[in-house]
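Lab notebook, design round three. We kept the backbone fixed and only want residue identities now. Task for the bench partner: fill in a sequence for the structure below.
Input structure tokens:
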């Protein structure tokens, strides 16, 4: 089984800059960021992106360490994900 998720943008995450503060997790309106179980070279957990980003930029503005870059798609994309 799978479902389609509308995705209007994406982000890149510089995980090695991340200090694991988790401010970005609740700041993401569609809730598509979650913390990793693996750790970066600083020994910190870091955010991972699931489908459904809107490219809103909230994570960019909340991150104290400028880990995010934001991209908005010209047209929304439907991404198939496991149900
Ligand atoms: S750009 Fe917006 S929707 Fe996308 S990951 Fe960041 S906060 Fe979430
Ligand atoms: S807000 Fe920035 S520093 Fe904090 S967990 Fe998210 S990416 Fe890492």
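Proposed sequence:
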């Amino acid at each position: 089984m799978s479902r389609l998720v509308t995705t209007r943008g994406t982000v890149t995450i510089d995980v090695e800059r991340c200090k694991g503060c988790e401010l970005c997790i609740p700041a993401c309106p569609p809730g598509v960021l979650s913390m990793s179980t693996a750790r970066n070279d600083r020994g910190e957990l870091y955010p991972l992106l699931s489908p459904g980003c809107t490219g809103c930029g909230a994570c960019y503005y909340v991150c104290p360490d400028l880990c995010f870059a934001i991209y908005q798609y010209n047209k929304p994309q439907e991404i198939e994900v496991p149900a």
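Keep this in mind before ordering anything: Residues 18-24, 46-47, 62-63, 65, 67 surround iron/sulfur cluster (ligand 2) (CB under 6 Å).
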